[in-house]
Each structure stands twice: as C-alpha cells, then as structure tokens.
Specification:
about 400 residues, alpha+beta, four-stranded mixed β-sheet, about 65% helix
Length: about 400
C-alpha cells in the first residue's frame, strides 16, 4: 500500500509539474482576454479546437506541455483554448473563418487578427511560428524582414514555407523560389522537397518550373511518371486558363481554350481541364447559373467520377440551384457518396436536396441519420436539426 501511495504521489507531482511547465491557458471570456492583453501589451493566442479533433489532442499532449513552449507563451501571450463548436467559440470561428482544426489565432488587444496558422506542429516549429508572430519584440526581426535582407539558409526558408503556406501563400511561394534557386545540384532532392515544389508550383512560367524539369529523374522516385506528366499538363495549361477568362463577361472562352490547349495536351485532357476550370471559376465568382449548366453536362456520366467530387457539386446545387430536374441529378450524385459510406455531411446534403424537391419523408430520414452520426462523432448537428424543426 505504501508503494502504491508513493507511486501515486509521484504521478500526481509529475502531472502537476507538466501543467506548470506548459502553456497556462486563461479561462476568461473573449472580451476579458482582449482587455487583459491590451493592458499587458501582449497578443492573445487562441488554440481554436474541436473536441473530436485528433491533431488538437496531440498538440495538447505533446506540444502545449513542453517547458520551452510554456516559458515563451506564458511570457509573451495571453493564451486561451476555445472550443469552436460551443458557446462564443462559434462566433469566433465565424468571425475568423476557422474551418479546420487546430487553428492558431493571434489577435491584438482590439481583437484584430495578427496571424492565423493551422494544423499539428512539432514543438520547434510551433515555437518558431510564435516567435515570428511576436517579432516586434525580437532582435532578429520578423521572417519577412530577414527575407527582405536576403537570408537564404535552407532551414530558414523551409520554416517560412511550413509556417506561411496557409496564412501568407505568396510569401511562402517566394521563399520556395529562393530555396530551390539556391539548392545545390549535387544535393539530394528529398521527398519533402518534392512536396514543397508541387505545392507552390502553379504554372510553367513560374521560376520553380525549371527545378520541376531538371529534377525530373529524382522526382520520379516519389511518384509514377504518369502522375508527373499529368501535373505537367496542368502547369502548361495554367497560362491558357488565364488567357481564356473574359473579365468583363466573367465567362470562359471555350473556343480559345480548346484551340490553344489541344495542341499541348490533346483533345480529351483539354476538354477535362476546360470543364474543371469553368466549374471552379463560376463557383468562385458566384455565377451559379453557369455552374449549373457546366456541372449537368460534365457529370452526365456520373459513374466515371469520384463520389466526393460529385458530392461537392451536389452541395453547391443544394445551396444555389432551384430547378427540380437539376436537383434530382444532384440527389443522384449525393446518393453515390452515401452508398460509399454514410457521413453526417453527405446525409445532410441529401436531406436538404430532398426537402427542396418536396420529398419530406426521405428528407427527414436522411436528416435524422445526419443528426445521429454527427452526435455520435461529437460534431455539430444543428444544421440537420434545423431541417427537422
């Protein structure tokens, strides 16, 4: 018994010590967090999480508890963890467009967004991110200042690419160009290098395209040549896409696109790219009348498409299309996703479409399924519940 008590005492001490060493999260409400930060002349750090999020739990266990992380954050930020699916977390998620977890928000005392990053990070990278955000107090200066001065160490540039790929894509892209421009030809081209290259390369006119071509043999170690060639076609067509957009009419010039693209990639690939471009462009510009026309034509042989791709089109139809015949096609697309495996998302979309079509019994059935699946997985079921009310 004495040994058990002693062991328990040690465990409790270790647990308490870990809590003391890590980030001390303030449980105050959002308004008070801002007031405290303003008074202390600090930034607010918010770990925007969801209870069901695996990477969020990993951050909580492996990163927030680190002494080095705690020391820096406790000194420089007013920190808080807020569930984005409960209480005022929902308002915060909406205000700052939090759509993936974990999201790391840095705000000033007025509630203005200073920086926003996403996803699980190892402690060293997480610290680098925080130090860069807090660069006002850093003697080294921010990463942008150091970049402007010409710094080109691989570690520095890789950090920029990792940290800013979502929050400041253009900055991260420029860092990638400097990274590949200065990478010695005799230095190993790694899998991470290939990942960075593919992520930031958008056109055959980009500076990184030279690396894509000259390092082809090494890149093929990480993917089939068929995929390499397909990606190359997309890059070559990037310029054609730009030239095919009529900014006045907000439409794609089909004839010009096909005439220019076919000699480069062939008729079939050109036609596929044209339809994909039109769908993306019309969605982006909220031209859902044109989106509807293109989608109905492109997905008419729906068996040849991935269910998730069809589900996205069905979701857009459920929100923006009123034509009954079109909604029936959208229901078919959503059903293909449901048949592969029921999720709270695809059953909700199908329920919404059936409500629009007046099929209330079917709609309620799928809305109930969506609600139950969401509840069981700890997700927000309010949208499905709204259909049932």
């Amino acid at each position: 018994m004495k040994n058990i008590i002693s062991g328990l005492f040690i465990f409790i001490n270790i647990f308490i010590l870990a809590q003391e060493e890590g980030i001390k999260f303030d449980q105050s409400n959002f308004k008070d967090l801002l007031a405290k930060a303003k008074k202390e002349k600090k930034l607010v750090f918010i770990d925007a999480y969801a209870v069901w999020c695996g990477p969020c739990k990993m951050m909580d266990k492996n990163v927030f508890t680190q002494k080095s992380v705690g020391d820096y954050f406790n000194k420089n930020f007013v920190s808080s963890r807020i569930d984005m699916e409960k209480g005022e977390g929902r308002e915060i998620a909406q205000k700052f467009s939090v759509r993936s977890y974990p999201t790391f928000l840095f705000l000033n005392g007025d509630g203005d967004l200073v920086s926003q990053n996403y996803g699980y990070m190892e402690p060293s990278l997480f610290l680098s991110m925080a130090q860069d955000v807090n660069a006002v107090n850093s003697k080294e200066g921010s990463s942008k200042e150091r970049f402007a001065k010409g710094e080109k160490s691989p570690e520095f540039l890789i950090n920029i690419m990792k940290l800013h790929s979502n929050s400041d894509y253009e900055f991260a892209r420029k860092a990638s160009e400097r990274y590949f421009e200065n990478k010695p030809k005799n230095e190993e081209f790694t899998k991470d290098d290939a990942g960075f290259l593919f992520y930031f390369l958008k056109s055959s006119e980009d500076p990184n395209y030279k690396t894509f071509v000259t390092r082809k043999t090494e890149i093929l170690k990480f993917l089939p040549e068929e995929n390499y060639n397909e990606f190359n076609n997309q890059l070559v067509l990037g310029k054609v896409v730009e030239e095919s957009i009529d900014e006045k009419s907000k439409k794609i010039n089909d004839a010009y696109f096909l005439k220019t693209a076919e000699p480069l990639v062939g008729k079939e690939a050109a036609l596929t790219k044209l339809n994909q471009t039109k769908l993306a462009y019309y969605e982006q510009n909220s031209n859902f009348l044109e989106y509807e026309k293109v989608a109905l034509d492109y997905y008419k042989n729906s068996d040849t498409f991935e269910p998730n791709e069809l589900l996205k089109a069905a979701w857009i139809f459920s929100d923006h299309v009123k034509t009954p015949s079109s909604l029936k096609k959208a229901a078919e697309w959503a059903e293909k996703s449901v048949m592969r495996g029921e999720t709270s998302e695809n059953t909700y979309i199908l329920a919404k479409i059936y409500f629009s079509l007046g099929s209330k019994d079917l709609a309620k059935n799928f809305a109930e399924q969506s609600k139950n699946i969401a509840s069981q997985s700890g997700k927000d079921a309010s949208l499905a519940q709204a259909l049932l009310n």
